[in-house]
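So, who can interpret the following?
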Amino acid sequence: MLEILSLVGIVVGLVLLMFLAYKGHSIIWVAPVCAAIVAVFGGLNILQAYLEEYIGGTAAYIVSWFPAFFLGAVYGKIMDLTGSARSLANKLINLIGSKYAILAVVLPCLLMTYGGISLFVVVFVIYPMGYAIYREADLPRTLLPGAIAFGAFGITMTCIPGTPQIQNIIPTAYYGTTATAAPIMGLIAAVLIGVPGYLYLEWRARQAKKALQHFVEDPKYKESAAASLEQPKWHWLSGLVPLLVVVLMLNVLPNLLRTYNIADLTSSQAIVVSLLGGIAVSCLMNIHQFKFLLPAINEGANGSLPAIMNTACAVGFGSVVKIVPGFALLKNALLNMPGSILFSEAVAVNVLAGATGSASGGMSIALEALAPQYLEKANEMGLSPEYLHRVASISSGGLDTLPHNGAVLTLLAVSNCTHKESYLDIFVTSGLIPVIVSLGLSFIWGLFI
C-alpha cells in the first residue's frame, strides 16, 4: 500500500513541478517543495530527506559539472560581447541571403551550438539578425522563434557526435563513453530530426505567403547601433576558429594524449580543457578588444550560477524520488516495458526531461536512478554502452521543450511573441519530431541488437 501511495506522490510532485515551472516560478524553491511532497507520500522524514538526499544530490551535481557550466558560460559571453559570434552569424547570413531566410537563421544556430556556445547566448545573438532577414524576406516575425529553436535547441546538442554541449557530456560519466559515442546512430537521428524539421519550417513559410501574411514590426524591438557596425573583414574568423578549437580539443586531443601515453583524460576533464582552449583562442583573437574581455568573463561567471543551480535543483528533486518506495514500482515498470533497454531509457529520459523542463536535468535524474541497471543489462547482452549514451542524449532534447522550459520562455520573451503565436512551431520542430525519432529509433535499433 505504501508503494502505491508513494507512486502517487511521485506523480503529484512531478505534475506540481511542471505546473509551477510553467507559471514562471523559480525551480530553486519549487524543486524542494515538490521533493517534500514526494517525501511525505513516501513516508520519509521531511527534514532528513531535504538535508541528506535533496541537498546531497544538488551538491553532487554542482561539484561534478560546475567547471563545465562556468567555463561554457564564460566562453559564450566572450564570443558574444566581443562580437565574434555575431560576426560569424553575419558572414553566414550574407552568404546565404534572404532568399533562403530559414536556412540563414538555422545554420548559424547549428554551427554555434555545435561549437559549444550556450543556446541562451545563441538566442540573443541570432534574434537581431533573424529579425532583419525575416523583414527583408517579408516573412511573419512570429515564425522566427521556431527557426531559432530548431537550430539552437536540437540536433547539435544531442545527436551529432562530438558536440561539447552538456547534454552530450553527462552520459559519459555514467557509461564510461566519449563525446563521439555511437556516431552512426547519432547521425541517423540528426537526419531524421533535421530534414522533417526544416521541411516543416519551409512549409510554414509558404503557407504564410499564400495567406498573404507579412512581416510586422515589433514595437518593443530597437535595433542597436552595434548590430549595424561593420567589423574588420577578417573578424568573422574570430567567431569560427574558437568553435573549431573547442570541438577538436574535445574529440582529438584526448586520443592524441592517450596514444602517446602523456595523459588519459576523462570526458569531464576533456570538456574543461577544450573550453579553456576556446576561451584562450577567443581572447587572443580579440586582444584588440581587451576592454570587453574582463566584463565578458565577469558576466559569464555570474551567469553560470543560475544555470547550474536550476539544473542541480531538479537533480536534487530526483535524488529524493529515487529513495521513496514507489520508485521501485516505477523503475521495474521502465526496466520491464516492451522493447529493449534502449526504448526504456528513451521513455524515462523523455518523461523526466519534460517534467523538469530541462534536458540535462531530466537526463541526470533518469541516469542517476537507472544507469547502473541499464549498464548491467547491456553488459549481459553484449550491447555497447555507446548506444545507451546516444539514446539518452537524443531523448533529452524532446519533451524538455514543453511550454515551461526556460529556454522556450527566454526565446519568446526576447522575440516578444506569445505561446499562442509561436509555440506550435517550437513544439513541432524541437519537441514532437525529436520525441518520435528518439522513441522510434531506440525501439527499432533495439530489435536488431
